[in-house]
Amino acid sequence: xxxxxxxxxxxxxxxxxxxxxxxxxxxxxxxxxxxxxxxxxxxxxxxxxxxxxxxxxxxxxxxxxxxxxxxxxxxxxxxxxxxxxxxxxxxxxxxxxxxxxxxxxxxxxxxxxxxxxxxxxxxxxxxxxxxxxxxxxxxxxxxxxxxxxxxxxxxxxxxxxxxxxxxxxxxxxxxxxxxxxxxxxxxxxxxxxxxxxxxxxxxxxxxxxxxxxxxxxxxxxxxxxxxxxxxxxxxxxxxxxxxxxxxxxxxxxxxxxxxxxxxxxxxxxxxxxxxxxxxxxxxxxxxxxxxxxx
Length: 294
Known about the structure:
This protein is of the alpha/beta class and about 290 residues long.
């Protein structure tokens, strides 16, 4: 198998490349610096992507995007969030579009559960409409950029990854300091996925040739309190100090607070389940146990 990966230096990208190479796949990394070896190709920043680099590959995985967890979302950083997603995705999609049909790989393009915004009380399958937040609008444009490649496009609507370098990073610091507790009401549904399942799901999408939106989220509903309390128990720390919604909006800005912490989104992985995917970590407690050594 030959897989081309853009965004290979991030948390998900590193783990995906490691998994593929461990199983003997050939991986070509797209990098924004001088290549360090024959398995790297420079692109962006004035270096157009030659479609021949992608020709005949089994899949091209686009994982580029500046972190939405970096705060505050100033006007300048909002522009970075948009550019860092749309520009690489369009470059990949247009390069694939330029290839003869028989040489076009499957494009597996990152997106996010932010697509759905906040939808209290609803079950969000891949058929659910987009929300009305900044993140939702960004995900819509991100996915539209990927669709330039044609019909063979999978859109990975990924939930926050339960990992020490993912959604847990700021929560670990608060929990260790003994100042963690309910975030806003705490009862809002928080979609989540373990890193192991994220990588396995991406590989499943490639192997099964899935196309269209695919929710990469754990199969069991969890609230913000469920995740925070499970982390506190794992670290043997208290979970008692609340972070009121009003204070979060004032400190982070309304868009970031609503998009990252206060949104209520019960996202379910219908496309994965109906295509036979089995989760290694079916509950958020399982995911936290895997992410935080005992």
